[in-house]
Amino acid sequence: MRHDESVPPTPRRPKPAAAAALTVLCLGIGVSGCGGDSGAQAQPGKGGGPAPSSAAASAPASPETPSPVRTSPAPSKKPASPAPSTPVTASGPLSGKTVVIDPGHNPDNHLHTSEINRQVDIGTTHKECDTTGTSTNSGYAEARFTLDVSHRLRTLLQAQGAKVVLTYDDDRAFGPCVDERARIGNKAGADAVVSVHADGSAVGNRGFHVILPASVRGGGADTSKIVGPSRDLGTRIAGLFVRATGSAPSNYIGGNTGLDTRKDLGGLNLSTVPKVFIECGNMRDPKDAALLTSAGWRQKAAQGIADGISSYLNG
Which of 5, 18, 161, 253 gives a 20 to 30 Å CA spacing to 64? Predict the structure, then answer.
């Protein structure tokens, strides 16, 4: 079982030219001062050729990732609660806007294997309800990382007046399933949805990437109305994530653009509102793991995502 709904199915050789890709990202969103010395964070891949100016649409590498290592006793199970978290907001430039934040996975999913292995309809096929997520070698679980960044992101967006809904807030025993995560954003009539993740790839594979919905139509899936807006949202997040964190785009997915397009993710296929995933880094690489386990860096990551959302919502 793959560790993450966002883990791609087939391998792809990494590509270089991260510096050129950063220029593409910055020019794409028109933000002055974007970029910085992010090359220091990158591990260039093998191969040659310039970085493309748009997201790669082919399926990327499929890392072989062990299940999260638990270094402390499992917490007591919590009753399932379908109601998402919706804290009170303040006034500000994002007043009247609704943002749904989707923290990837649940730290107790591994205690509910039959439930999370249940197949759900993602429009074009069926897929597991959810997965366990990955972890660092020291046992810091992706699900803990995603919830921490999501809380920081919520605070930043609420300070600008946005109404923020979390699909999950440590308030249920497992899940939610990927189809339910999509429905929460749809029901909220969200102006933007971001699903927060961290990858579990091979050592030496570094950097972040933003996953965009492909054009998909089949069963209950029809992304035709959200492909364009989602690309705009994802491009802005990618460019401003570089500026806030100093991290380079992925050197193993997306051709160094920081963008990747996928049609196999239920969370994107079933969305009727603009939505993207962000893989903030590779938890299995020691250098990326050092960033992901730093509270200071997680605050920068949340700031970069918030800046991208704000840029998108403010036009």
Answer: 18
Catalytic residue of the set 5, 142, 180, 279: 279
Q: What pLDDT score was predicted for residue 91?
A: 85
Q: Are 213 and 271 in contact (CB under 8 A)?
A: yes
Quick check: is 279 catalytic? yes
pLDDT tens, 77-90? 444 444 555 555 57
Residue type, 232: D
Predicted TM-score (pTM) of this structure: 0.77
